[in-house]
Amino acid sequence: MNPNANLDRELKKGSTELLVLALVEGRPRHGYEIGKLIEQRSGGVVQFHVASLYPLLYRLEKRCWIAGRWVEKAGQRRRRFYRITAEGRKVLAAQRSMWQEFVAAINRVVGIESA
Amino acid sequence: MPEWKQLIRERLAGMELDPRREAEIVEELAQDLEQRYTESLARLSASDDADAGEHSAARAEALRMALEELQDGESLAREIARIERTLRPALLRDQAGMENAIIPGREGRGNMFADFWQDLRYGARMLFKSPGFTLAAVLSLALGIGANTTIFTVVKALFLNPLPVEDASTLVAIFTTDEKNKGQGFDLMPISGPNYKDLRDQTHVFAGVVGFTFTGLSISSGEGEPENVPAVLASGNYFDVLGVKAAAGRTFLPEEDGVLGASPVVVISHRLWKNRFGADRGLIGKTIKLNNMDWNVIGVAPENFRGVFTLFGADLWVTQSMYQQAIPAGFIRDSWEDRRALVFFSFGRLKPGVTLEQAKAAMQTTGAQLAQAFPRENDQRNFTATMLTQAALNPNQQQAFVAAGAVMMGIVALVLLIACGNVANLLLARSSSREREVAVRVSLGASRWRLMRQLLTESTLLALLAGGLGLLLAFWGREALWAMRPPFMQNTVLDMALDARVLWFTIAVSMLTGIIFGLAPALQGSRPNLALALKDRSSVPSRSNRWFTCAIHW
Q1: Distance between CA B299 and CA B252 in Å, rounded?
Q2: B499-508 contact pairs (CB < 8 A, 24+)
Q3: Terminus-to-terminus CA distance in chain B, angstroms?
């Protein structure tokens, strides 16, 4: 197996929740928008299929880290928007901290070997 | 435009969710696919001069790309169904690198028992992982809980066992009072034979009045060496007034307490019947040797009945008409008809509707009349009554017994509190080694209450283990304690069975113990310093660091 694909899969597995929580932190978003933003802001590195995005959203919703609500805007069909909850904010803060430590730890290792 | 909802329903058949929720999911996915289709179509049909065929191909390709988003529809349907049906987060194995870790969320919503079971299993695992700590804590607590259970067993036997009689609320114990002896620990005294009979005949508030006294009878029949067993000489209505039915055979007939010496009949206790006669039903109607004389066994008392006094149980009951055969020559026999000699105990059953106060008033009227009629014997004497249940222990010393019981319970409670303090210290010392585990859980969203519940469940489990061992210690301890009883209780037989009440007491004490010694560590342990605890302190990744190690594995 391509080692990069393996790494890609493992890294993504550990960061999907962080990605979603971070994107709904600022304002509520619907599922399509979340998937699109992840793809755009990651420069196409991280892409979510519908088959993985929506189960993730429903899982986060069950844990009460995000809350979904149908919103109907004038002249448009209703869409389901997700916003972060208070518990979700705590989790996001903790996961951000862990991710930053992880990245720093990797950088230290990689940096030492390069030297 | 494709019918997205229809297409999605076809591919996600089998979700089997609440129809409203299923409709919402289908609608949401349909909107997403429609938007992707529209964008893909716009990209694929970018050329203005594309012909109809190319447009058709673009539509087909855009549809294919959109539907590809659903990938394996069956798996997706199952995944969504699993998530929707889960009321609490399931065990996640490797997402955070903590195998078998419990990732908390808003657990307990509608599934408290599942959460409690999860906490129990996790707590059991944690205790099993620290056998040294667990053993030390369990032993320490078991001694304290065992001591409490042992003392409770004795207290229960003395104070909490109900009188095995019918409707004890209408049974009263009758006493003689003497103004000359008041306040010297003899406020309530037995009654004399003649006074008992006059009270019985002249007071009309009782459905029946019984007089009885104690003696010892030498039994030589049955298995074992001849022995002196405690016996009661009672009026013929003894069992009838108490409402006690024989376990085998019958109790006294009125005529068996008539002519002196004419009715050598005996009711034996269940204990004696079992121990000396092997519970032989054939014994009824046969004779046994008491005081070298043949007595006809007419019945066996119920298993839990040994008389109305807690400390002085009897194994034999004979009628008063046989007092000359049953009681050896001496004070009691010589005083049988002495109005001044207080050698009888007495109790009566109140007539329906008569209160204790009314009975006392009636008895005092009779007492005053008897004092007038017999000024020498009944000088300054009268009668009174208490509920029979309150006279089961010596009524003049009831308070002393209660105080002694309270002191004993207090002492062992103190011993247990000290043990709780020791175990709490052990837990607090141990909590520092679990700080990282708790910190990771907090960072993943565990509420403080959830963590405290987990820690308290662990401590309660520890205490329940100790309670089980304590019960075992109490099983042996009560025998040891009873062996140290004072001389006047040497012939006392108390029911110190480890029955359901003792078991519930032990469970309650254990759970309270678990909360007492577990609360402080739970309060402290559920509030870790996240920043300090999450820093990787060692060069070797700990179990909690597996999130990182999995991520860099290649």
Answers
A1: 9
A2: B501/B156, B501/B160, B502/B149, B502/B152, B502/B153, B502/B156, B502/B471, B502/B474, B503/B471, B505/B148, B505/B149, B505/B152, B506/B145, B506/B148, B506/B149, B506/B467, B506/B470, B506/B471, B506/B474, B507/B464, B507/B467
A3: 45
Both structure tokens of B178: 């003497």
Please state, in angstroms and rounded to a whole number, the distance separating the CA atoms of residues B311 and B345. 14
Instruction: Give dist(CA A94, CA A102) in Å, integer.
Output: 12
Quick one: tokens of B294? 């043949």
Tell me the nearest-neighbour CA distance from A14 into chain B, angstroms. 6
Task: Give CA–CA dist B134/A53, Å, rounded.
Answer: 45
Q: Is the pTM for the entire model greater than 0.80?
A: no
Closest partner residue to A63 among B36, B75, B106, by Cβ?
B106
Beta-carbon separation of B84 and A58 below 8 A: yes
pLDDT tens digits, residue range B211-270? 999 999 999 988 889 999 999 999 999 999 999 999 999 999 989 999 999 999 999 999
How far is residue B79's CA from residue B69's CA, in Å, rounded to a whole number? Answer: 15
C-beta atoms of B76 and A97 within 8 A: no
Residue B107 three-state SS: coil
Give dist(CA B252, CA B354) in Å, integer.
27
Of A31, A97, A106, the CB nearest to B534: A97
Distance CA B294, CA B265 (A): 9
Q: How confident is the model at residue A112 (pLDDT cuts 50, 70, 90)?
A: low
d(CA B205, CA B200): 9
Give chain B's radius of gyration (CA, Å): 40
Task: Give tens-digit pLDDT for B405-454.
Answer: 899 999 999 999 999 888 888 888 877 767 666 666 655 555 677 778 88
Does the ipTM exceed 0.90? no
Residues in chain B: 554
Whether residue B445 and residue A50 make contact (CB cut-off 8 A), yes or no, is: no
